[in-house]
Design a protein that fits this description.
365 residues; alpha+beta; eight-stranded mixed β-sheet; four-stranded antiparallel β-sheet; 38% helix; 20% strand; binds aspartic acid
Length: 365
Amino acid sequence: ASATILKVEVDSVRLFPSVICLAFLLLAPFAATAQQPAHHWAIVLHGGAGVIERASMKPETEAAYRKALSEALAAGAAVLDRGGSSLDAIETIIRRFEDDPLFNAGKGAVFTAEGRNELDAAIMDGATLEAGAVSGVTRTKHPISLARAVMEKSPHVMLEGPGADAFAAKEGLEMVPSSYFFTERRWQSLVRELKKEGLPIPPRPAGAPPAPATPVAQIDAPDAHKFGTVGVVALDKAGNIAAGTSTGGLTAKQWGRVGDSPIIGAGTYASNKSCAVSGTGTGEYFIRLGVAREVCNLVQFKGMPLQKAADEVIHGELTALHGDGGVIAITPDGQMAWSFNTSGMYRARQAEGGKPVVAVYDDEP
Ligand code: ASP
């Protein structure tokens, strides 16, 4: 009898894998569809908010910004369209902006009162809630890629200063001398701002080109020296959202000041449970209100539509605190929003199958 029992057991043990295989083969197509529902990608980006007015904007300046925004949007859309991740689309766009002196990120970043370029950036993955951020970097060409390396290759969330640059070098990211970030336009903005505040003007940084004989033309609105941060939120075909932000901070910032952009929950936040947000404006207010997380909390816990949540935080809480700036946001179900209480925000958006929208002033849709 024990031999028979043993044989039955052996047979069922042999049979078991075949049954599993058969079940798997029959159910696999359904399982695959259940795991990868088709999501329509969507993307929203900003290139900073501030006093941006038609009256003081030169047509060629406006055209340059619109061209940069629309080309960046197309580059990000192409990544998402071929099935790339929201993180890849964000990094692709922000690297472009970091190379473009029009924007206050990477080359073209504003100067501190001491005459340095100190860069901040952050990225967050809504699928995993993993995040990476850096502040005060001076030698890493693409701070957004460094933020991503912090997220993916270090056990930490936020690195600052020389340590962050050292980690970038260790990870093989492109390093540049700090003078690479120098632009005449931003230097002259610093000089103007320091004069206005009655602060001493530092010597031109080592490695900067000699001062031009005639002052360079202002290429944007008078107050725009304050802003020009870049940010992107994206939804990919796998249904995951993410957010990224990169900035030089505020002109004439002092004493190692850190803004909201690299602070998770303030200037940058993403969770598949609610939304992804990137902010721009005077960072001190965004930090105090936890703006990015606040928008997502209204979506997550109050069930608000995204646009309403963004407006509530920007036109409600931020304005009440006399803060200035705006946000872009996206949800996993494809809602897109922007909201700002300044006269303009460089911005663009597109959803799969839809037309690209590029806008600058507050009276545009
Ligand atoms: N939010 C940035 C900061 O305070 C600046 C900006 O968005 O223009 O550092």
